[in-house]
Amino acid sequence: MYLMAILSKRMGAVMRIKPYFIIYYFSIVFILIAAAYSSFVPYSEKGEMIGNLIFAIGMTLGLVATIKYWGWLVKELM
Q1: Whose C-alpha in 1, 4, 14, 30 is 20 to 30 A from the C-alpha of 61?
Q2: pTM of the prediction?
Q3: What is the mean pLDDT of residues 6-23?
Q4: What b-and-e string marks burial along 48-73, b requiring 16 or more CB atoms within 10 Å of the CB?
Q5: Is 26 exposed, middle or buried, given 0-12, 13-18 or 19+ CB atoms closer than 10 A?
């Protein structure tokens, strides 16, 4: 996610797109929270579900930012 944030920041500056790359940093925060939560909370079904939910939120944010910056690439290939 960090690499995608750096690449998207540069591409956004060239293409004069709004700074959507900040969404990648929120994604990184959610993924780190999920990793920490999974590491420090004792194993339980509910705890695992919460950790996976936080991770899914982080990955979804990364997907949204990727679509904003790199969606044109899919259109070009089709």
Answers
A1: 14
A2: 0.82
A3: 84
A4: eeebeebbebbeebbeebbebbeeee
A5: middle
Q: How many domains does the chain have?
A: 1
Mean pLDDT of all residues in 5-27:
86
- Tokens 């004792």 map to which residue? 42
Tell me the helices (H) and strands (E) count for the chain, helix number first. 3, 0
User: Sign (positive/negative) of CA torsion 22, 24, 29, 33?
Assistant: positive
Give the mean pLDDT of 50-55.
93
Q: Name the DSSP class of 1.
A: -
pLDDT for the residue numbered 60: 96
pLDDT bin (cut points 50, 70, 90) of residue 68 is confident
Structural domain of 45: 2-77
The residue behind tokens 């995608």 is 4
Q: Decide if 36 contacts 20 (C-beta within 8 A).
A: no
